[in-house]
């Protein structure tokens, strides 16, 4: 996959970076943790045709556009229809109805800030647009929080690749376990919240 990403960036430049980040939002197995560090590294090569600012904005545009692709199905199809589609076709993009349910619950608990936080968490960043759409979150606030969160994520990855140079793959290597820890902590926090809420309801 690394060679394919590299060839796309080399042949299409900024357009290739934007396209890769757009597709990354649709197909989670394509990692932004590899795309943007590689793009940042490419901008730091001698005689590079790309510059780091252009790389950042190309990645940001692709990421935000990809988020909209998940937002509108949530808005117009609703939760139950999306779950049915996910169970039927989700294996092609590694998304299930359980993933949608988890994202919806987290959004209901965190509100609008879930979009901002979610865009910073691998494994959640792709799906957080779905509950935002299901909950009819207004488009402008959605775009604001999505752009803000995406900018922080894309900027971090781009700068890491730019600084690390040929060692850009270390970003993916070290972020992978950190991502699992973050997801684990979010799961524990959600379980704690559910238990606390049940106890509170019983007391009432």
UniProtKB/TrEMBL annotation:
This protein's GO CC annotations: plasma membrane
Membrane-topology descriptor: Multi-pass membrane protein
Keywords from the named record: Cell membrane, Membrane, Transmembrane, Transmembrane helix
Pfam families recorded: VTT_dom (PF09335)
Similarity section: Belongs to the DedA family.
UniProt cross-references to InterPro entries, sorted A to Z: DedA_domain (IPR051311), VTT_dom (IPR032816)
UniProt domain VTT: residue ranges: 30-162
Membrane-spanning intervals of the chain: 12-30, 50-72, 142-162, 174-195
Protein name: DedA family protein
Compartment(s) where it occurs, according to its Swiss-Prot or TrEMBL record: Cell membrane
Origin organism lineage: Bacteria, Bacillati, Cyanobacteriota, Cyanophyceae, Nostocales
